[in-house]
Design goal:
This is Regulatory protein, luxR family. It comes from Micromonospora mirobrigensis. This protein is an alpha+beta fold. The protein folds into 3 domains: 3-66, Winged helix-like DNA-binding domain superfamily/Winged helix DNA-binding domain (Arc Repressor Mutant, subunit A, Orthogonal Bundle), CATH 1.10.10.10; 88-255, Endonuclease Chain A (Endonuclease, Chain A); 269-328, Orthogonal Bundle (Arc Repressor Mutant, subunit A). Helices cover 54% and strands 14% of the residues. It has 13 helices and 10 strands. It has helices at residues 9-20, 26-33, 37-49, 68-107, 111-114, 122-135, 151-166, 183-195, 236-252, 269-279, 284-291, 295-309, 314-323; strands spanning 53-55, 63-65, 116-120, 139-144, 170-176, 198-202, 209-212, 216-222, 229-233, 254-255. Strands 3-9-8-7-4-5-6-10 form an 8-stranded mixed sheet, sandwiched between helices. α1 (9-20) crosses α3, α2 crosses α3 and α11 crosses α12 (295-309). The longest helix is centred in the first third of the chain and has 40 residues, at 68-107.
Length: 333
């Protein structure tokens, strides 16, 4: 019945029996279910690991089943969160693959047949984005990684965003959580939300992205300051992958006005992302870029997590986080 939640049939049988007979001890449970004492103990260990058991109020040495409305709901929420993360991983991989194919087609000079346009230089990229924004009919969706946005970028976007909202265009923008700590970017995001745009934030973003009317997308190939390059893609396959990626991230993102909730372990989404990146072996500089924060902030968060875990190294912190269920092994790349 509950195998999808990670509960095997034997553990499920013990849990259901305990709900019917909360006072039953290990021996009684074994007799009722036809199980050995060892099998019952293994099932109890599984239930304790999944937080489906609690100490009795009357006798702290005795274990009682957690109300299924609470316990199973918590397990279901965890599974849904894991599924959402796996879905995002799939969409990111699909988008990365399709962009690679687009870039290769462009390099082979197949821009006309492949629906890929190459843009070189910041002025050229900004001009093309301005054209697309002015021609947008009903929806513009974007990822804005990098944390705090530059004053020039915010100023360039203000008139375009105001004009789009006035024309009835739905604006959906995803920033990094770290923009909540940058006054200028936060003020802009709030202004956009008050204007009628929809603004959400996440701990990390896979790439910079603009999708216009779900007909055309702009993605970077190179973010180098001296020679920025972007692709404009219009083919159905590429757009389908990019739209799916945006939708997946959008569903997991928190509206700007809401507080970022902490999970059962007391971790904020940003702290959880740092643990994952530490477990993958990333440097402080790389983590800072992914989260859009300073290296100093990254080191402060990492040091706090190591202290809470009692870890002596970054690698050990990642391993302990997996062992204690703070993050899942499948989260690590």
């Amino acid at each position: 019945m509950f195998e999808a939640l990670g509960i095997n049939k034997l553990t499920e049988a013990v849990y259901l029996e305990m709900l019917q007979h909360p006072e039953a001890d290990i021996v009684a449970l074994g007799e009722r279910l036809g199980l050995t004492e060892e099998q019952v103990r293994e099932a109890l260990d599984d239930l304790a690991r999944m937080s489906l058991l609690r100490a009795s109020w009357a006798d702290p040495e005795a274990l009682r089943p957690v109300d299924p409305e609470v316990g199973l709901s918590m397990l279901l929420a965890r599974e849904e969160a894991d599924l959402a993360r796996r879905q995002q991983d799939i969409e990111e991989s699909r988008a990365a693959f399709t962009l690679l194919m687009a870039e290769q087609a462009e390099l082979r000079g197949q821009t006309t047949s492949s629906g890929v346009e190459r843009l070189e230089g910041m002025e050229v990229i900004r001009h093309r984005i301005r054209e697309l924004a002015q021609g947008c009919r009903w929806e513009a969706s974007s990822f804005m990684p990098g944390g705090a946005q530059s004053a020039a970028s915010l100023e360039a976007s203000r008139a375009l965003d105001a004009d789009a909202v006035e024309r009835g265009v739905r604006l959906r923008t995803v920033y990094l959580d770290s923009v909540r700590n940058d006054p200028a970017t936060l003020d802009y995001a709030r202004w956009l939300a008050e204007l009628g745009g929809e603004v959400r934030t996440v701990p990390a973003l896979p790439l910079r992205l603009l999708i216009v009317d779900r007909d055309v997308a702009v993605v970077p190939v190179s973010a180098a300051d001296d020679a920025p390059v972007a692709l404009v893609v219009t083919t159905e396959g590429l757009l389908t992958a990019l739209v799916a990626l945006f939708q997946t991230v959008w569903k997991q993102a928190a509206p700007l006005g809401s507080a970022r909730r902490r999970d059962d372990e007391g971790l904020s989404p940003q702290e959880r992302q740092v643990l994952i990146l530490l477990g993958e072996g990333h440097t402080d500089e790389r983590i800072a870029r992914r989260l859009g924060v300073s290296v100093r902030t990254t080191r402060r968060i990492a040091a706090d997590l190591l202290t809470r875990l009692g870890a002596r190294s970054r690698f050990q912190a990642g391993a302990l986080a997996v062992t204690r269920g703070w993050i899942d092994e499948s989260d690590l790349g």
